[in-house]
């Protein structure tokens, strides 16, 4: 086995690891509102979302083509140099995903990936190594428009929903929309698979082109589709409970009609972007939709402090991931060859283990994800208690005050 083949295998494994983190990082985009309103039990929700992510990954490859050919300038780099860029970019994306997950911030996995690739490409070959037209038109502009459009659509949808159902008894309304949420949340999960799993497909495609296994004009290999679909589904099933809690309980106090409006808006926008080949951030869309439901319901509480933290995370995602990607490239390049790649890979594993152990100090899980949101209770210490009569959720946690 040659050193170049080992590097390719490490890159593919790292890409699938990123896909896995993308899955648990973004589960809340589809299921946070359904879990918060009691439409679905937490573990049922993540299992359903994982299954539909798996299916959605096979529906289209338009987004994969954008990632494979629209970020790194393939005319300026190839071979081992391109493999190293892809590897360093993936490490940058993974580290940012894990850091924001630890903080419970629903930042964009897509932008973490693109940022990592951009930083590594600039570090390697300069500004000419990036397809700036593709980055601006298919990453930056959609990132600015997505949350605004989603918020406007969800605001209008929420107002319309409450107007149409104004004469319906509250209990009947809640029950009906909880049932409807199962369908709308499922559609978001399907849409997420068509958009996010393909980003990793595009990265692996880049690595295969760099290795010479395929050419830039070849079709996406089936094994790449299958492995990426399985990786994102497994990550989704793990459940990113910290981010689910922020989206479901921290941003807006959500009722079932709002939840269905948010999910329907998100699904429509994500599916449209996938059809057009736009690697849209599902996090931006879902968060914008949830925020819109708070604006569309009279008297709803919107926690603008939490929204502000999210906005800051969004703004710094691309440059932060780019910085990490550049640092990883420099480290691997200075050491050189297979040894450099393995050192960076080992550092990634150590950082991942550290962040996981840190998260266990203030655990968020299916049993306490729905604890009432209180100041300083982003990561609640809770005890599971029997669910109230009629609730779909099997564990209804009792919140306690925590000091940080």
Topology:
Elements lengths: L2 H35 L4 H15 L5 H9 L8 H25 L5 H17 L6 H33 L5 H42 L10 H17 L2 H10 L5 H21 L5 H15 L7 H32 L1 H23 L21 E3 L14 E3 L4
Antiparallel strand pairs: 1-2
Helix pairs in contact: 1-2, 1-4, 1-7, 1-8, 1-9, 1-10, 1-11, 1-13, 2-7, 2-8, 3-7, 4-5, 4-7, 4-12, 4-13, 5-12, 6-10, 6-11, 7-8, 7-10, 10-11, 12-13
Compact summary:
The chain is an all-alpha fold.
Radius of gyration: 21 Å
What's the overall average pLDDT, rounded? 82
Secondary-structure-derived class: mainly alpha
Taking the alpha carbons of the first and last residues, their distance comes to: 51 Å
Annotation field: number of helices: 13
Poorly predicted regions are: 382-404
Q: Please trace the helix and strand order, writing H or E for each element.
A: HHHHHHHHHHHHHEE
Question: Which of globular, elongated, flat, extended, rod-shaped describes the shape?
Answer: elongated
User: Main beta sheet, described?
Assistant: 2 strands, antiparallel
Beta percentage is under 5%
Q: What level of helicity do the residues show?
A: over 70%
Please give the number of β-strands. 2
Strand arrangement, major sheet: 1-2
Walkthrough of the structure:
The structure is a single chain. With about 400 residues, the protein is mainly α. Helices cover about 75% and strands about 0% of the residues. It has 13 helices and two strands; from the N terminus they run αααααααααααααββ. It has a two-stranded antiparallel ribbon. The longest helix is centred in the middle third of the chain and has 42 residues. The termini are far apart.
């Amino acid at each position: 086995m040659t050193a170049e083949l080992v590097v390719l295998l490490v890159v593919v494994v790292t890409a699938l690891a990123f896909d896995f983190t993308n899955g648990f990082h973004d589960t809340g985009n589809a299921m946070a509102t359904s879990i918060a309103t009691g439409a679905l039990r937490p573990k049922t929700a993540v299992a359903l979302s994982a299954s539909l992510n798996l299916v959605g990954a096979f529906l289209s490859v338009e987004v994969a083509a954008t990632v494979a050919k629209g970020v790194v300038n393939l005319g300026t780099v190839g071979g081992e140099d391109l493999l190293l860029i892809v590897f360093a970019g993936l490490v940058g994306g993974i580290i940012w995903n894990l850091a924001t997950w630890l903080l419970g911030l629903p930042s964009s996995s897509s932008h973490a990936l693109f940022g990592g690739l951009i930083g590594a490409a600039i570090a390697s070959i300069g500004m000419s190594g990036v397809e700036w037209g593709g980055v601006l038109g298919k990453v930056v502009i959609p990132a600015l428009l997505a949350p605004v459009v989603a918020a406007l659509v969800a605001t209008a949808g929420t107002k319309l929903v409450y107007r149409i159902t104004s004469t319906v008894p509250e209990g009947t309304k809640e029950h009906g929309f909880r049932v409807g949420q199962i369908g709308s949340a499922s559609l978001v999960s399907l849409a997420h698979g068509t958009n996010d799993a393909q980003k990793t497909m595009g990265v692996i495609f880049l690595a295969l082109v760099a290795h010479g296994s395929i050419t830039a004009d070849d079709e996406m290999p089936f094994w790449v589709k299958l492995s990426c679909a399985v990786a994102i589904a497994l990550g989704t099933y793990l459940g990113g409970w910290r981010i689910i809690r922020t989206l479901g309980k921290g941003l807006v106090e959500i009722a079932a009609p709002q939840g269905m409006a948010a999910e329907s808006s998100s699904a429509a926008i994500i599916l449209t972007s996938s059809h057009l080949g736009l690697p849209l951030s599902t996090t931006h869309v879902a968060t914008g939709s949830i925020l819109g439901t708070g604006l569309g319901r009279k008297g709803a509480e919107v926690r603008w402090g939490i929204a502000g933290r999210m906005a800051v995370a969004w703004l710094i995602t691309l440059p932060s991931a780019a910085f990490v990607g550049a640092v990883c490239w420099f480290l691997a390049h200075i050491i050189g060859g297979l040894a450099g790649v393995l050192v960076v890979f080992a550092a990634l594993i150590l950082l991942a283990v550290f962040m996981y152990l840190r998260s266990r100090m203030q655990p968020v899980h299916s049993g306490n994800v729905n604890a009432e949101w209180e100041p300083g209770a982003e990561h609640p210490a809770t005890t599971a208690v029997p669910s109230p009569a009629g609730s779909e959720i099997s564990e209804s946690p009792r919140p306690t005050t925590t000091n940080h």
